[in-house]
Amino acid sequence: MKTFNLPLLLLLAFALFAYTGCEDDDGPGNIVADSLGYDGDNVTAPFNGQGFNTFAAYFPPQETQPYVGRRLETISFFLQDIPTSTVVIIYAEGTDDRTPGGERYSIDLTQRVRNTGWYNHVITDAVVDIRENEGIWIAVEVDAPINQFQAIGCDDGANYNPNGDRFLPPTGNTWTSFNEITGSERINWNIRGFLAEE
Questions:
Q1: What residue spans define the domains of the chain?
Q2: Mean pLDDT by 10-residue block, N- to C-terminus, for the chain (198 residues)?
Q3: Number of CB atoms found within 10 A of residue 167's CB
Q4: How far apart are CA 99 and CA 67, in angstroms?
Q5: Tell me, what's the pLDDT at 52?
Q6: What is the pLDDT of residue 5?
Q7: How far apart are CA 156 and CA 96, in angstroms?
Q8: Cβ distance 97 to 163 under 8 Å?
Q9: Given this model, what pLDDT does residue 32 score?
C-alpha cells in the first residue's frame, strides 16, 4: 500500500491556495497613494525663533501636472515639540517660486495637537484640487512659545530640493529658505500631501 508524503501534500495545498488567492499587482490590494513630498524619514527639527514660523514645501507646475483634476486629500507633517498653535495652510501658485499666492485652504489644528510625531490631516470640508499649469504650496504655521523651539521636523537632506525647505520666519514678511538662513544646511521639511484616488 502506498503512503502519502504529508509535507509534500501540505506544500502542494498551500501553493494551490496561494495561486488562487492572489490578486493582480494592479488590484485593489496594492493601491499606493500618489503624493507630493521631498522629504525622507524624520531625523531632527531645527531650532526656531519665538513667534509665528511658517514651514512650507512648494510643488511647481511641472511636479503637479500629472495630477491635474485630482483632489488633495491628506496633509502629513511631523511635530518635534507641541507649539502654542498649529495651522495647516494650502497656498496657490504665486507670481514666482519664492512667494506663495493666495490662501486656498486653512485649518487650525491647535485643539487636536496633543502629542509629538506624525500628524495626518484629512481635508473633508473643502475641495483643494490640482489645477492646470499651477503649482501648490503646502504649509504648516506654528506659534513657537520660546526661542530655540523645535517645531516641524526635517530629514537629513540626502535628497535635498530647494523647494522643500521654504520658510517664513517670525521676523518680517519675506519668504526665504532654511538653506539661505543657515548658509549651508540642506534639509527638507517633513511635510507631505497625498492625493485622493482617481
A1: 32-195
A2: 47 39 35 83 95 97 96 97 97 94 97 96 94 97 94 96 96 90 96 92
A3: 20
A4: 22
A5: 95
A6: 55
A7: 27
A8: yes
A9: 47
Q: Which pTM was predicted?
A: 0.83
Q: How far apart are CA 165 and CA 36, in angstroms?
A: 14
The 3 state secondary structure assigned to the chain is: CCCCCHHHHHHHHHHHHHHHHCCCCCCHHHCCCCEECCCCCCCECCEECCEEEEEEEEECHHHHHHHCCCEEEEEEEEECCCCCEEEEEEEECCCECCECCCEEEEEECHHHCCCCEEEEEECCCCCCECCCCCCEEEEEEEEECCCCEECECECCCCCCCCCCCEEECCCCCCCEEHHHHHCCCCCCECEEEEECCC
What is the second-level CATH architecture of the domain 32-195? Answer: Sandwich (2.60)
Cell of 181: 538662513
Q: Which amino acid is at 130?
A: I
